[in-house]
Design brief:
about 140 residues, 8 helices, three-stranded antiparallel sheet, 8 strands
């Protein structure tokens, strides 16, 4: 019987722009050079397949790289939510002490007066992003004052 799974690891990825910098960074191999014929527009990621401009090069948890066509990447991956430092501190505290539901219900009792407006605003405006950050991880962004 087939079972359904979801990916649980976060990855890093960047869209391939065809630049020499990215060719060097990912040690892409030119098909023509590889075959000893001539320089060709076909580039390959060692052991992983052809890479075209516009494709994404993903980096996994073990540092491995693989190409992903743009259309598939957009259907498969989403950027992690971005949280400010006060919201991320609140999330981490909640993960240590409560479940996700309690994080929403108890916000008014925990947050310092200084951080309360920012955390309350985030929870009310972006509840889905807060839940995604809880489950999948997040990036911390510094807010300019």
């Amino acid at each position: 019987m087939i079972k359904i799974y979801r990916k649980t690891a976060t990855i890093k990825a960047e869209q391939f722009d065809g630049s020499d910098e990215m060719i060097d960074k990912y040690e892409l191999i030119d098909a023509g050079t590889m075959l000893g014929t001539h320089h060709s527009p076909e580039l390959y990621l060692t052991g992983s397949g052809k890479v075209d401009v516009g494709d994404w090069i993903a980096t996994g948890v073990e540092g491995e790289h693989w190409p992903v066509h743009d259309e598939i990447f957009k259907k498969t991956y989403k950027k992690l939510p971005k949280l400010t430092r006060p919201v991320s501190r609140y999330l981490e505290y909640c993960k240590e002490h409560w479940n996700l539901n309690d994080a929403f219900l108890n916000a008014e009792y925990l947050v310092s007066d200084k951080d309360a407006p920012e955390v309350f605003k985030y929870l009310s405006e972006y509840p889905d992003d807060f839940a995604r950050a809880w489950l999948d991880g997040y990036e911390v962004v510094e807010v300019e004052e």
